[in-house]
Amino acid sequence: MMSENQSSPNESRFQRIRKGFSGELKRYLLLASYLAIWFCSISFLLTMVEGNFGIDRSDMNFPFTLALIKAAIVAKFMITAELLFPMRVNRDDSVVLPLLKHSLAYLAFVTMMSFVEKGFEGLFHSHHFFASMKNFGHGQVTIITAMMLIYWLILLHYLMFKLMRDEMGGKSLHKMLFGKS
Fold first, then answer.
1. For residues 60 and 128, what is the distance between their CA atoms, to the nearest angstrom?
2. Which pTM does this prediction carry?
3. What is the DSSP letter of 6?
4. What's the rounded Cα separation, in Å, for the pair 68 and 154?
5. Rounded to an integer, what distance in angstroms lies between the CA atom of residue 181 and that of residue 170?
6. How buried is residue 173: exposed, middle or buried, by Cβ count under 10 Å (0-12/13-18/19+)?
7. What would you report as the CA-atom Rg of the chain, rounded to the nearest whole angstrom?
8. Cβ atoms within 10 Å of 63's Cβ, excluding its own
9. CA 74 to the chain's CA centroid
10. Long-range CB contacts (< 8 A, 24+ apart) of 73-80?
11. What angle is formed at CA 152 by the lines to CA 147 and CA 155, rounded to 5 degrees?
12. Which residue among 2, 5, 6, 128 has its CA within the 20 to 30 Å range from the CA of 145?
């Protein structure tokens, strides 16, 4: 029995490439959308908090634009990382260690992207890039730690979903989550 991602022997090379590209594009768009929802939500929360502290947020679109850009970049990185370093889990082994390793590696990248995002936001407001990067989380370790924990939970859920999809198959997982389709 063929899996969902395998092609039939009768398909031409072009058809297999097109099918593979369309599958990867769909995965990318779904992951980018998932991350965009989270990153925009976090940006909205931070914008409201900063507004309560008297920080002028007259240009509220800019943080959301950066959140969308960050989601697109992080999604591309994660898809590439998944292809280069797939998470391998044996049926008899625990998923905890591979899940932890991958989620922490992705977390490091997302955190780095958040610092860079703050730098670009500073440039937009005519500040120095590196000085603005230091303002991520207002330069407070507790806020940065809280943000990293939120990012880690976002990534952990995605990776767990991916493990379930790989183990059960996309159609079975869809049926389990949404019922008969």
1. 20
2. 0.71
3. P
4. 15
5. 12
6. middle
7. 20
8. 22
9. 5
10. 73/113, 74/35, 74/106, 74/109, 74/110, 74/113, 75/28, 75/31, 75/32, 75/35, 76/28, 76/32, 77/106, 77/109, 78/31, 78/106, 78/158, 79/24, 79/27, 79/28, 79/31
11. 130
12. 128
Report how far residue 41's alpha carbon sits from residue 88's, in angstroms, rounded to the nearest whole number. Answer: 31
Q: What would the two tokens of residue 53 be? A: 């502290």
> Whose structure tokens read 């989380």?
137
Alpha-carbon span 66 to 39, nearest angstrom: 9
Half-sphere exposure of 24 (CA within 13 A, CB side): 14
Q: Structure tokens of 78? A: 């994660």
95: which DSSP letter?
S
Please give the Cα distance from 72 to 138 (Å, whole number). Answer: 25
Residue at token pair 């768009």: 29
Amino acid at 70: K
Place of tokens 């440039």: 123
d(CA 159, CA 149): 15
